Task: structure prediction
Amino acid sequence: MTRSRKIPIGEDPAAPDDRERSVPGEDGNEAASSAAEATGLEEVPGTGPSLQEELEAARKERDELRDEVLRRRAEFENYRRRVERDRHTAAQEALASVFREVVGTVDNLERALSAGGGPEELRKGVELTYRELMGLLEAHDVVVVDPVEGEPFDPTVHQALLHEPVPGFPEGSVAEVLRKGYSFGERLLRPALVKVAKSAGSAGEGGAGDGEEQ
Result:
């Protein structure tokens, strides 16, 4: 037997029942759709990496950078040690080269001292040794600073030991060379020690030089 529903007076029989129109979940979908329309953004399904994955990626990048820094530091330390070792070796080789030539001069001195004979033979041996030493210095670009008497005093390569009035020499000129100087390239190894002439009017000022002997 078919059951019939009583329709209240004034109700449209064709209107659907509210209970029939209410579907679970439809209200949430409608709210989300309305929110998307209000912001103008389309909802995208969750396909991005999770927070844990991003953290692991950051840790991996950090470890890689740390390993790279440690590797670079080790390479630089090895390079620094290698440069220092090569520099020390080069300096030792340069000294050894000079010493090899000096020992030959020492042999000549020993022969001159042990040779029998008079002062003339000894003088010849000393002269030979002197020539060898000067040749050794010239071979290594060592230049003798030997001022000419009468030339102006040059404080860059000369050292004044005395200031005295000297007849025939103008004031401020080199009157006498007391010791030669030497230079190596642009470096002054030792200045020439000289006596500098001054005018007779300043003779009472004394004759001590400008500096101590080096």
